[in-house]
């Protein structure tokens, strides 16, 4: 998730500019898309208690991945904004689910260490993604391929969470 988030949102104004939008429009559209993060985060914060941590997380991850694909293949302004809003919304929903789900995968006495390692590993993706994305953009790789890579990373995370984690809502692992 960190790879996708930092790979996309740090380069979003440049991607929009390369698609022919002025700097003002690129920054404005980026701001509009980023605003969808707040309701995404709040929705997931509510859903983890009503629907479950794992279900909220995997749903948000797969929908973020599909939104990334839609954004990469969008052919006009309306679809760019729609898929950008969806991607932004579901990425932050996935992050909200991740924070509670990940920490609860560890016994209480090991939660700080476990979460620290998990967050640290995620930061590797955060650090690498802007460089790789910039390199791919400079190599003139089609946007569908670049956003397909974001989709692939989210899909891998989806299957990891689906296969390895267990639902922790209402379960005390002490």
UniProtKB/TrEMBL annotation:
Natural source organism: Alicyclobacillus fodiniaquatilis
Subcellular location: Cell membrane
Membrane-topology descriptor: Multi-pass membrane protein
Keywords: Membrane, Transmembrane, Transmembrane helix, Transport
Protein name (record): MFS transporter
Transmembrane regions listed in the UniProt entry: 20-44, 56-74, 80-102, 114-137, 143-166
Residue ranges occupied by any Major facilitator superfamily (MFS) profile domain in the UniProt entry: 1-169
Key word Mitochondrion present: no
């Amino acid at each position: 998730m960190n790879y996708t988030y930092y790979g996309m949102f740090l380069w979003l104004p440049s991607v929009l500019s390369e698609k022919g939008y002025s700097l003002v429009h690129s920054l404005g559209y980026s701001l509009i898309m980023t605003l969808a993060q707040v309701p995404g985060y709040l929705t997931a914060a509510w859903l983890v208690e009503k629907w479950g941590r794992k279900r909220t997380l995997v749903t948000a991850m797969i929908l973020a991945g599909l939104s990334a694909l839609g954004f990469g293949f969008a052919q006009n302004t309306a679809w760019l904004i729609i898929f950008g809003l969806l991607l932004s919304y579901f990425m932050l929903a996935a992050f909200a689910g991740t924070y509670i789900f990940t920490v609860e995968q560890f016994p209480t006495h090991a939660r700080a260490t476990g979460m620290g390692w998990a967050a640290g590993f995620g930061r590797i993706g955060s650090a690498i993604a802007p460089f790789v994305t910039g390199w791919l953009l400079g190599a003139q790789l089609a946007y569908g391929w670049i956003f397909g890579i974001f989709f692939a990373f989210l899909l891998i995370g989806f299957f990891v969470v689906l296969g390895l984690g267990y639902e922790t809502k209402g379960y005390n692992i002490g």
